[in-house]
Amino acid sequence: MPKSRVVTATLSLLAATALLLSGCGAEADTPKDNAQLVPKLNELLPQKVRDAGVLTVGTDPQYPPCDFTNQSGQIDGFNHDILMAMAPRLGVDIRQQAIAFDGLLPGVQSGRFDAAMECITDNLERQKTVKFVDYAYATKSVVTTSENKHGITKNPLTTCGLKAGVQTGTEFVEDAKLFSKNCESEGKAALQITNFPTAGDQNTALQSGRIDFAFTNTATGVWQAKASGGHFEIIPSPLLSRTYVGIVVGLQADGTAKALLGALEAIIEDGTYGKIMSKWELNDIALDKPGINLATERPLELPKVCGACGS
Fold it and tell me: SS3 for 138?
């Protein structure tokens, strides 16, 4: 790549990263609209939420199009739009608060947040400590630079021995372990894995060459590729599963979970949800039948060691 293109790519990434990182500490609210209130859903919410008129939702706004900070400094994304559509049905304001991803689940468990929403994967391990109200699917991919100098393909063995980046607290940590296990099953070197505190840090490491590839939500990776002017390549893999993503609430927060589920069902039924997913070009991950803890109730097939699968 010519030096001028490298500089352009770096500046594009830094600009995008700066925009994403500017969301730390940001908040987003929605006004009430009593015309759409569903009283039975409001009654399911905890009394403290009803008294305050506010449901606080934690997010990490560094994952466009899930959640990000727009040019006006406000939290944006398809998750934000879904919450804003749900709020009038619940009869409360929804206030989003920004925090690093690895603080989202502990924030719900401690009571700091009433819920958390940031394309959080519903899985059996997490269900031991929190409850999920699932609202969409997610697919995952490998992301590398457009040069792809190591020749990474759908075949997971093409990543063996390479430097991989994952963000702390995400399901990608376990994905990386599965890739390493797959490599070792074929007598090849495991991944050299580096954990990063934020998505911005991971992206910077990828662009600078400190890592060879990273794991990402496919929709986020596609967005990242566009934002950087096409300087990233998104590669699917048979070792990366399709999953459910959900709004997280406390393990004992049955009322809140049922209220959120009811609000989701309402915006699906009246077509609002479909319009939101179309706006963000995410119709392929829309979930027509939301539910609670679907990783248990309607489990999807999980990937397994498969050697050179995908080649």
Answer: strand
The pLDDT of residue 86 is 98
- What confidence score (pLDDT) does residue 252 get? 97
Query: What's the pLDDT at 15?
Result: 39
Q: Which helix (H) or strand (E) holds 287?
A: strand 286-292
Give the Cα separation of 56 and 42 in Å (integer).
15
How confident is the model at residue 8, as a pLDDT? 36
Q: Within the chain, which residues score under 50 in pLDDT?
A: 1-25, 31
Q: What is the reported pTM?
A: 0.85
Burial 265-304 (b: 16+ CB within 10 A, else e): bbbbeeebbeebbeebebeebebeebbbbbbeeeeeeebe
Beta pairing, strands 54-59 & 232-235: unpaired
Q: Which domains does the chain have, with CATH numbers?
A: 14-136+243-295 (3.40.190.10), 140-235 (3.40.190.10)
3-21 vs 218-227: helix crossing angle, rounded to 10: 120
Asked if residues 55 and 95 have their Cβ atoms less than 8 Å apart, the reply is yes
Q: Which residues, at least 6 apart from 260, have a Cβ–Cβ distance to it below 8 Å?
A: 86, 90, 115, 133, 247, 249
Main-chain phi, psi angles of 272, to 5 degrees? -65, -45
C-alpha–C-alpha distance, residues 291 and 289, integer Å: 7
Q: Over the stretch 242-258, which tens digit does the pLDDT of each residue have? A: 999 999 999 999 999 99
Cβ proximity of 215 and 172 under 8 Å? yes
Residue carrying the six token digits 């992206």: 203
CB within 8 A of 41, min separation 6: which ones? 89, 90, 91, 259, 262, 263, 266
Q: How far apart are CA 60 and CA 73, in angstroms?
A: 14
Query: Which DSSP state fits 227?
Result: H
CA dist., res. 56 & res. 95, Å (int)? 5
Tokens 């939420």 locate to: 49
Mark out the alpha helices in the chain (DSSP H runs). Answer: 3-21, 39-44, 47-52, 78-90, 104-110, 172-185, 199-208, 218-227, 254-269, 272-279, 294-297
Helices (H), 100-186: 104-110, 172-185
